[in-house]
Amino acid sequence: MKILYIHQYFKTPADGGALRSYFIANAMANRGWEVEMITAHNEPRYEKKMIEGITVHYVPVPYYNEFSFRQRMWAFMKFVRLATKLIRRLPHADICYATSTPLTVGLIALRAKKIMKIPYIFEVRDLWPEAPIALGVLKNPVLKYYSRKLEKKIYSHATAIVALSPGMEEAVRKTAPDHDIYLIPNMADTAFFEGMEETEDKNRPFSIGYFGAFGRANHLEYLLHTAKACTDAGLDVRFLMAGEGAEKKMLEKKAKSMGLTNMEILPFQNRENIRSLMARVDACYTSFLNVPVLQTASPNKFFDGLAAGRLSIVNTSGWLRELVERHQCGFYADPEKPEAFPSLVRPYLDDKKLLKSQRQHARNLAASMFAREKLTNQVCEIIEKVVTKGQ
């Protein structure tokens, strides 16, 4: 089978960042399928690389976290143009697998369907355009109207749709009620964190890690105020943050102005370094701005924390909260009430058995529900079903 895979932000373990598409494409290649991945990079020229059985086409579309909304839209449309042009030169495929964000990736899938006469599966990683509308990024009424029309068109022409959370699945079903919609959340790479060396130091303070994007949607000011609340309460709790994003410089300045001596902010790290940082923390914090649409998120960092067997702290009242509370592997912390955080974390400082137990629950949840091998196989089975049905 030949797969045309479209992902504007495809990453490998060497790059760091979210690896869902790498895992899925790798599973495809392991089945003997030919995978042509079209993605973008910040280099000035097109490049073609063979990465673990995956043929990766890098088209030159610069993209930076500091981009304005207009610059981002320009990058999205340039990728559509270059990817479509490239598709015309590629060997015929049996199916296209296209993953957002951005939503404009769906335009490439639509054009691949027309050019190659093949079906496509559309993967919904975030609810576009609802997320940028809720965040106040997409304000123009005309753009809102046409973005929603585009969303409906992309869903309606897809043979199947993959959603990454129950909330996303529900939202997609409202827009495309007659379609085959599959729920396949993000993945926990338990094997990668197996045998991870723990930092053995009885005098080490309780440590909480945040390893991910420093973007507007994450609103990491919540974590700064949480760190301040712990200091004010006299708790020996430290916070370790690593990543990149448009809000990072502002957060660094704010942490300094608040006098947060219990917080360390590091640069973006590759995957191996993240594993080393995981060994230094007891818990992982998942942060999102307090708006309803972000409660549907399926963040990679949350699943990495589970795979590493870290206590999971979430500040969103969505499906992630339900998971950690039902499986007793962490707790919900109201982002608007940082003063309440010390009382929530104190039991884990006082009772090491409780901490150990809930960390084990996190690891068990990762293995039972979100194992990488299990979920990538489910994606491959959907592709086989779609292709077989079309023959």
Can you walk me through this structure?
The protein has 391 residues and is of the alpha/beta class. It has two domains: 2-187 and 372-390, Rossmann fold (3-Layer(aba) Sandwich); 190-369, Glycogen Phosphorylase B (Rossmann fold), CATH 3.40.50. The protein contains 15 helices and 14 strands. The protein has helices at residues 20-30, 69-87, 105-116, 130-134, 141-157, 166-175, 190-193, 221-232, 248-257, 271-278, 300-307, 319-326, 341-350, 352-369, 372-390, and strands at residues 2-6, 34-41, 47-51, 54-60, 95-99, 120-124, 160-163, 180-183, 206-211, 237-242, 263-266, 283-286, 311-314, 330-332. The strands form two sheets. The chain has an eight-stranded mixed β-sheet, with helices on both faces. It has a six-stranded parallel β-sheet with strand order 11-10-9-12-13-14, sandwiched between helices. A hairpin with a 2-residue loop joins strand 3 and strand 4. Helix 1 (20-30) crosses helix 15 (372-390), helix 2 runs parallel beside helix 3 (105-116) and helix 11 (300-307) crosses helix 14. The longest helix is centred in the N-terminal third of the chain and has 19 residues, at 69-87. 43% of the residues are buried. The mean pLDDT is 95.
